[in-house]
What we know:
The chain is an alpha+beta fold and 92 residues long. Helix content is 26%, strand content 40%. It has 2 helices and 5 strands. The chain has a 5-stranded mixed beta sheet, covered by helices on one side.
Amino acid sequence: MKKAAKIIVKGTVQGIFFRQFIKDHADKLKLTGFCRNLESGDVEIIVEGEPDQIERLARFAREGPKHAQIRSADVSERKWTGSFREFKVLRF
């Protein structure tokens, strides 16, 4: 059964290729959705797919790439829409 989640990642996550790191893992996990920088300095991830794969992505988000300093990665469930075809990095 497909699920959806929103992950808000706080810490040093902008300007260090964090969004590309997330996209690479989402693609490998066959997840759809998007990630984007927020004005607050956080990164928002909206993801849909298999629950175990979403949990794996959340673990990657908590670890981050080499130069990331993650303070928190809060996961909340969302209603699955099935409207995403791929995982994208959104830019301002």
